[in-house]
Amino acid sequence: MREITASGQTVEEAVQSALEQLNTTKDQVEIDIIDEGKKGVLGIFGSKRAVVKVTIAKNPIKETEKLIKEIAGNMNLSVEVKTTVESNQVTYELDGANIAILIGKRGQTLNALQYLLHLAINKDKKAYYTVVLDAEGYRGRRKETLESLAHKMADKAKRLNKKVALEPMPAFERKIIHSALQGINDVSTYSDGVEPHRHIVIKP
What we know:
This protein has helices at 11-22, 60-74, 100-103, 108-121, 138-160, 171-181, and strands spanning 3-8, 29-35, 50-56, 80-86, 89-95, 130-135, 164-165, 188-192, 199-203.
């Protein structure tokens, strides 16, 4: 049961009745007051009961998890999803056969799915979440690759004494490059271009 209409002497009483029938708490539902009711003369004559519609609110984290499985299913993939929530960051870790299809070339499919999930989880705008979508530890391996690339390109920029532009990357990957080179005194980094072609430039 996801939704119930209940009545009571007051709105509060009607809501309480609905919560008991749904076996839930007030913070887990959406309440729609259909009729506030009225007390009537001496609380008896012409009185009208309050009527409310109470709906169990959808959990955006669980709904987004379902969406991942639906997308994977449409790609003929069966995936296990492990969900971790830390503050406002939700990490979905995927596991399953042929998971490389979901990662795509240089993580492009994974990044596109992550962006889609970010939109889906925040569509109700009740709370703001950032989404990290990972598949079989790809993000960790990609981070190591990017850090190695950052140092290699920084050396190239110093050796040639000119700017070096990297390939376009999503914002969270550019952040890895910026962080990797932050402590190096003889190079600086900045982002250039317009999404989705925004890229990092390393400058000696």
